[in-house]
């Protein structure tokens, strides 16, 4: 038995109301169950409860065992002095306020439908999706409603990260866009190293060196820590010398340690050296990255935005001294879709929030709907349940639903979970 389940039962009043009495034998009628409180303090605020002949206005506290009142030390917290009803599964003892008066207690054992318990217990078992065997009961409109809700949650979470980044970049949205695209190129394993790399590459230096591709390579590869002194390959040596010059000219921070980068068991297109080369291609061939992101509303726009050539060396190599067997080093179509979903769309939402422009959210959702769906182990779980995954909108929604609700067994906060229990 979980207390959260009791919160759900009380909030929706899913229990037998007839012959409801306190443990002292006084009749109880719920006029208004109160406002659910997810912060500190009593579980439900401002309830209206008729106990005997008297109507009480105050708070309601929920526990599995009445003695939990003392385990949680509510008797020492004046915030609980205005509790007018204690609702429990089992009333194993009486409870009192700080000033010594006893609080009316209602025991719900035997008053909650058995089918609710059975469904809830089944949803708390170890399957990856708690409602895996019950979801066919849920109308499609409720799935749609939940998907829309969690998608907005996910976009707002990512937008909040971008707002923090904007503060770090002193409000320069062009720099923010470059950082966001770099982080997206690093996904999934090298996102944080790309953020750290951006911190060690001054944006003013990037703008000044924009027309000099070789110096940009020296700047980025030198600061990444991947340009090692022991490399004897001629091109690497050239970049090392150039990096030493730039290091003193721009008073650069120390380079990253190469061990920060994930490179093992990684396909060639995902190697950090290749991704850095692609980022340099974006810098040298796109004059207004942020503006182009803001104008993107369909996948074709993203394809055009990210259709850049890597520096000539990286068209034939994937690491210093290591020749590429195939490909040109350009960003793949699949990766372009991921960058759009995880970088460009959150950037649109964040800028829309900054400007107070709700149309940016609509544009971001429109862009997601135009992107092909990603295939990963989480999305395959939903497909195996017979649910449609048609585009990146569905992917982002199902990822959020799984990670924030299913994996954490937050069924009682989910529209689908509540519908199944109801």
Account of the 3D structure:
The model has no long low-confidence stretch (mean pLDDT 93). This protein is α/β, with parallel strands linked by helices and 422 residues long. It is elongated and about 90 Å long. Strand 2 (35-36) and strand 3 (44-51) form a beta hairpin. Helix 4 crosses helix 13, helix 5 (173-185) runs antiparallel to helix 10 (272-285) and helix 13 (333-355) packs antiparallel against helix 14. Helices cover 48% and strands 10% of the residues. The chain has helices at 3-12, 68-71, 114-123, 140-168, 173-185, 191-199, 203-208, 213-224, 234-249, 272-285, 289-294, 299-305, 333-355, 359-370, 377-384, 392-406, 415-421; strands spanning 28-32, 35-36, 44-51, 54-65, 83-90, 105-107, 317-319, 322-323. The protein has two domains: 3-112, no CATH class; 169-370, no CATH class. This is DUF2851 family protein. It comes from Algivirga pacifica. It holds the Pfam family DUF2851.
Mean pLDDT: 93
Order of helices and strands: HEEEEHEEHHHHHHHHHHEEHHHHH
Number of helices: 17
Number of domains: 2
Protein name: DUF2851 family protein
InterPro entries: DUF2851
Organism: Algivirga pacifica
